[in-house]
Amino acid sequence: MAEPRILTARPSAVEINKVLRNTYALLAMTLLWSAVTASIAVAIKAPHLGFITLLVFFGLLFAVHKTQNSIWGLFWVFALTGFLGFSLGPLVGGVLGMADGGAIVAQSLGITAVAFLGLSIYTVTTKRDFSFLAGFLVVGAIIIVASWIVSIFYYSTLFAQVMAGICILFGSALILWETSAVVRGEQTNYISATVGIYVGLYNIFSSLLLLFGIGGDD
User: Fold this and answer.
1) How far apart are CA 112 and CA 65, in angstroms?
2) What pLDDT digit, counting tens, does each position of 147-158 carry?
3) Is the separation of the CB atoms in 140 and 169 below 8 Å?
4) 69 alpha carbon, distance to own chain's centre
5) 3-state secondary structure 128-159
6) Nearest to 176 by CA among 113, 211, 129
7) Mean pLDDT along residues 42-57
8) What is the DSSP letter of 2?
9) For the chain, what percentages of helix, strand and coil (3-state, to nearest 5) are there?
């Protein structure tokens, strides 16, 4: 996998395809790595990290942004995705502890995979411009972070369901926006593109786990 770089001119179709291939290759590796760290968290019965999760996430995200044009960006991408996978451990472990927990996890994974394939295929084949989603993503990110902080002090089933729905929409929009930017030659850094798509998938999968978990066991 080549060292990421910023292209100074509008990239050609060959360069765009290269960025897209590198993005999907790195995404596959980070998803596998996240599965490993999540499994470790489940095995050791890791506790919820609470507010620490948010602080570490933003810290690692900043590190990725600062190094995305160097080989060090790869190190921080795996640090970020490994941590996010680990942070899913308590949720996955809780769901697996339910009577039909295995089926819920498999169902959530399946829906996430189908959604990702559908969104990606549609964006790549149509080359539609989804840059108009930028405003929605900014507002959505603010709402999600604010609601996550509120949930530390106040929790209700209805609140969790509504936020899970918002996170699924946010994750889907993020995948469309990031993939569209790569396909249209506006995003030329596969490290940054990978993180964007990964965060979208993370939001969809974790929210589906929460929704199905609430439905199966209050």
Assistant:
1) 26
2) 878 877 777 788
3) yes
4) 20
5) CCCHHHHHHHHHHHHHHHHHHHHHHHCCCHHH
6) 129
7) 87
8) P
9) 80, 0, 20
**∠ CA 136-142-148 to the nearest 5 degrees?**
130
Is the distance from CB of 104 to CB of 213 less than 8 angstroms?
Answer: yes
* Percent of the residues in the chain that have a pLDDT greater than 70, as a whole number: 94
Strand, helix or coil for residue 44? coil
pLDDT at position 7: 46
**Are 42 and 89 a contacting pair, CB within 8 Å?**
yes
Backbone angles phi, psi at 197, to 5 degrees: -65, -40
Residue with tokens 């690692």: 60
Are the C-beta atoms of residues 180 and 128 closer than 8 Å to each other?
Answer: yes
Take residue 39 and report the two structure tokens written for it. Answer: 């499994």
Is residue 137 over pLDDT 90? yes
Instruction: Give the max Cα distance, the chain.
Output: 56
Asked whether the predicted pLDDT for residue 218 surpasses 50, the reply is: no
Pick from 189, 170, 216, 169: nearest CA to 68 = 189
Report d(CA 162, CA 65) in Å as an integer.
30
Give the tokens for residue 14: 């060959």
Q: Residues 187, 178, 144, 54: is their CA dihedral positive or negative?
A: negative
**Lookup result for tokens 């946010």:** 170
Asked if residue 1 has pLDDT above 70, the reply is no
Region at 23 (left for phi over 0; alpha for psi -120 to 50; beta for the rest): alpha
* Separation CA 63–CA 207 (nearest Å): 26
